[in-house]
Design brief:
Helix 2 packs antiparallel against helix 3 and helix 5 (183-198) crosses helix 7. The chain has 299 residues and is an alpha+beta fold. The N and C termini lie far apart (60 Å). The chain has two domains: 7-177, Jelly Rolls, CATH 2.60.120; 183-296, Homeodomain-like (Arc Repressor Mutant, subunit A), CATH 1.10.10. The strands form two sheets. It has a six-stranded antiparallel sheet with strand order 1-2-9-4-7-10, with helices on one face. A four-stranded antiparallel sheet has the order 3-8-5-6, with no helix packed on it. Helix content is 46%, strand content 21%. Residues 189-286 form the HTH araC/xylS-type domain. It holds the Pfam family HTH_18. This is AraC family transcriptional regulator.
Length: 299
């Protein structure tokens, strides 16, 4: 812990290995500035999220002034002019976390955060304590090992929990398209994800429908309406595309067949030929021949 001239409390943890994830955490801190302590007006090239634990202050963003008290989270967006100032008699005590700009705007917009709506309120003490704990875990995880990437991995996990908690607190302000996905679209998305990750299993439409909570006939109907394929046709497409990709490897035909959900290599070969016009062996040979030709032309 260290003390700055304009703070009665100031501590910060720096991420020793930022950049390893889509959520690029830069640093996190905790502070209690002196009365009337002010930052700005300035612009940051990264996102900064503050959650007020006690006290109060003023946050100005995009020309609008917001009076913040305990429980309020105010978000500084990259490229947006802002300033904030601690109260003259009851200065705030807050936690903060900084994220790199990459992908941040879209993420925060999905959370309902914009320059016009940069505040997330929290009136429940237990929820506020949970937020404070997440900030603390992020900050205290840094500089604890000789493997910086592990610290980044741990801190990024806590960051995701923090952002989830803030999004839930701001649920009523989330964009409608992030909350109310039509039943048809939801069913199709779930089925596509199910098939794309479970294609190596022995799947059936009955199993998928039951697991996802849909009637078999209804799921088949909406899926074909949206994709032009039945779920089983889509499954075959995924399996064949995966098989074609694996043909570039040194795996045997039997191993490839098993990897894409076929226990019977002969049945797999029959389906692969129907899909590509070649047997697996012919397809694999054509790839190898093409590679040898390419190497010969480009020594």
């Amino acid at each position: 812990m260290s003390i700055l001239p304009d703070h009665t409390l100031y501590t910060i943890g720096m991420n020793p290995s930022p950049g390893g994830h889509d959520l690029n955490l830069l640093f996190s801190g905790e502070g209690t500035p002196v009365p009337r302590h002010k930052i700005g007006p300035i612009i940051h090239d990264y996102c900064l999220i503050h959650t007020v634990l006690t006290g109060e202050g003023v946050f100005e963003c995009a020309g609008t002034v917001h009076h913040c008290t305990a429980g309020d989270t105010f978000v500084i967006l990259p490229g947006v002019l802002f300033s904030y100032e601690a109260h003259e008699r009851n200065p705030w005590h807050y936690n903060w976390v900084a994220l790199q700009e990459k992908g941040t705007h879209m993420l925060l917009a999905d959370m309902g955060i914009t320059p016009a709506k940069p505040i997330i309120p929290c009136t429940d003490e237990a929820e506020l304590d949970a937020l404070a704990s997440m900030y603390r875990h992020i900050r205290l995880g840094f500089n604890q090992s000789d493997q910086p990437w592990l610290e980044d991995l741990q801190a990024s996990g806590w960051l995701r929990l923090l952002l989830h908690k803030l999004a839930m607190l701001n649920r009523e302000h989330l964009p409608s398209n992030s909350r109310d996905v039509p039943d048809i679209e939801r069913g199709v998305r779930q089925t596509e994800r199910w098939i794309s990750t479970q294609y190596h299993q022995q799947l059936s439409i009955d199993q998928m429908a039951k697991t996802l909570g849909y009637h078999r006939a209804h799921l088949s109907k909406i899926f074909k309406q949206q994709t032009g394929l039945s779920p089983m046709q889509y499954l075959m497409k995924v399996r064949m595309e995966k098989a074609k990709s694996l043909m570039k490897s040194s795996f045997s035909i039997h191993e490839i067949a098993s990897s894409v959900g076929f226990n019977d290599a002969l049945y797999f070969s029959k389906q692969f030929r129907r899909w590509t016009g070649m047997t697996p062996s012919e397809y694999k040979f054509s790839l190898e021949k093409g590679e040898r030709t390419s190497q010969h032309q480009n020594p």
